[in-house]
């Protein structure tokens, strides 16, 4: 049961530190082709698993550019923080990447439908402190999943002629025409829908996009910052909250001077020429008028604690209204009492054999050896039963006896298994024993011990999973929170709802109803349904922690 | 072709009067397994793979026929579960050679079960079945016996085997035949002679896939 797996210490990573290099290699090996594939079909559904890799993209000293050369700041990141303190600790930094290892909390409500993220737009002149404001908001919000998107990623690719102009310091990077607004709106829209996006990485040396892109996911809160964030009406429409950072022109110039001269080794005259010739006129002409769209104007940028607290409060209120307390909500969903069991439930006939197996695995005194043996038998039965729910075609068989036999053949051979780590993995062997060469995907969902919410940590699925019937495996289902997250992941990968079968050994009545209500076409296969769940989300009478008992990792003081 | 269909119908019709004949719930999945086993184009590795799957299902179902008692157990959460417990004192007996294909399936379900063997050969000239070899656990007379034989077309072999078991003191009502394919004629032969024993099969069909043993063991 994924829900009860012991959560790693918040700062520690899903993969151990020594695995960092390996993990990366793994990802760059596996993800690229699958992403290319998805890109071709135009279906970027979110693959919301951490570790997220954020390629490190140093902005080279932009000697030739009119745009103020920014320091090597990471401008576009997916932050995934438990709290202020762990924000940095839950990342692994290597030379080229930052890997975020905290899990993704639910991005859908208790009915399995996606919740629209809250999008904050931050606008303001160059060097006005937009990024500082964004960072302070993220810090004070304490929301587990925030995506920070920067407008800098969307500069247009320059042609040769423009390139030359840029070399002569005469290309206006502060003009709206310098941005690719089509791609920008498209990207923001996808993020808003909770889908996965590929954000371009702009190279300020070559003024073109690098061949690699940065993968980002929809989040509970998305912060979009840039000098012209309010310029495009479509973008404006998508923003739930509009913040304008208004810093005095003198302060901005002073900051630019300090940044460019001390950090970039550029001369005073050149910087001032740039500033007066393009940056300041552009600000007056295009950026300053955008202030009218703002909900909040933050004077003095990041130093303005009062303004930031106000913003954070408002965002909190909004998030609460949208409701993301999932498991609790599921627990309270007692509406099922007295209702008939949903007709998508496929309960194995309770034969003496099944009851006998349950007796063994439920008994707390069963030694592990027997526990594993009898669990495996029960798993085999439930998997065989699951296969019988597939659709079959009539087929006339030629037999060696020379008499034709009217038989059946399964109408599809595209079946794959997806196990919910860890307990679901116990069922993989049985699936492999029953289906030759079956593909197996894995999803790691763990319970955040602080919030009690399930969080998505890891995901690896067959490339073309949308064409498959998916046998989703978890040994036990209590509230159904982890199962629902897994189903949501599959749906986000374009698997048809009717092609999903959630298979388990034991379910609680509550979980069955929650899943059936949220996903009415998903078939629910199990060998027993227990009436209750206790306050620790264990099924009563239940099996206990199936994963711990199977793998022998139960804490010494229990059992 | 038409006549075959009628025969199937008859087969089911007349097996119904035997209460001790149990046919595995014939859902599509089992039908598919049967189709693969009957298909002459199935490769040997596939044949063995799917035969083992069907055997496992038949064995699991056979175990349902064994006696049990109610029992209560305490789960790790401290709650009580009303379960059941199988009585000890069962054993398996396979009829050599094809019955041995089912031994592994039984082993996979009951790790330490005792398994006896019977070798029945039919005389090449008279076609009369004759017991050549039999070896059982000593206290077999006290036990429930799961007799394993996958294909039954005439029922003669099984009749002989049951006879031997009875000679060793096994009660007729304690014998359960685990079978994959049998013909209506075989059901009739066996149950008319031994009405108290049980037959559990996956299919009753006038044509039995007699190539089973040859193909399973690769001696075809």
UniProtKB/TrEMBL annotation, chain A:
Its catalytic activity?
uridine + ATP = UMP + ADP + H(+); cytidine + ATP = CMP + ADP + H(+)
* GO CC annotations on file: cytoplasm; nucleus
> Quaternary arrangement and interactors, per the entry?
Interacts with RNF19B.
Task: Enumerate the UniProt keywords alphabetically.
Answer: ATP-binding, Cytoplasm, Kinase, Nucleotide-binding, Nucleus, Phosphoprotein, Transferase, Ubl conjugation
* UniProt subcellular location: Cytoplasm; Nucleus
**UniProt region (Disordered), positions on chain:** 1-91
| Main subcellular localisation | cytoplasm
Annotated source species: Brassicogethes aeneus
Record function comment: May contribute to UTP accumulation needed for blast transformation and proliferation.
**Phosphoribosyltransferase domain: which residues?**
349-553
Enzyme Commission (EC) number: 2.7.1.48
Q: The organism's lineage?
A: Eukaryota, Metazoa, Ecdysozoa, Arthropoda, Hexapoda
The text of the family note is: Belongs to the uridine kinase family.
Q: What is this protein called?
A: Uridine kinase
Q: Does Nucleus count among this protein's keywords? A: yes
Q: Name one Pfam family in it.
A: PRK
Q: What are the BP-aspect GO terms?
A: pyrimidine-containing compound salvage
Question: Which positions carry the signal peptide feature in this UniProt record?
Answer: none
Q: Which portions of the chain have biased composition (kind: Polar residues)?
A: 76-91
Mention one GO molecular function. Answer: ATP binding
**InterPro entries this protein is in?**
P-loop_NTPase (IPR027417), PRK/URK (IPR006083), PRTase-like (IPR029057), PRTase_dom (IPR000836), Uridine_kinase-like (IPR000764)
Look up the record and name the pathway of this protein.
Pyrimidine metabolism; CTP biosynthesis via salvage pathway; CTP from cytidine: step 1/3; Pyrimidine metabolism; UMP biosynthesis via salvage pathway; UMP from uridine: step 1/1
Primary enzyme class: transferase
The record places domain Phosphoribulokinase/uridine kinase at 119-307
TrEMBL record, chain B:
Q: Which UniProt keywords apply?
A: Cytoplasm, GTP-binding, Nucleotide-binding, Nucleus
Which positions fall inside the Phosphoribosyltransferase domain?
26-205
The molecular function GO annotations come to: GTP binding
Subcellular location, in the record's words? Cytoplasm; Nucleus
In Pfam terms, one family for this protein is: UPRTase
Of which family is this protein a member? Belongs to the UPRTase family.
> What's the name of the protein?
Uracil phosphoribosyltransferase homolog
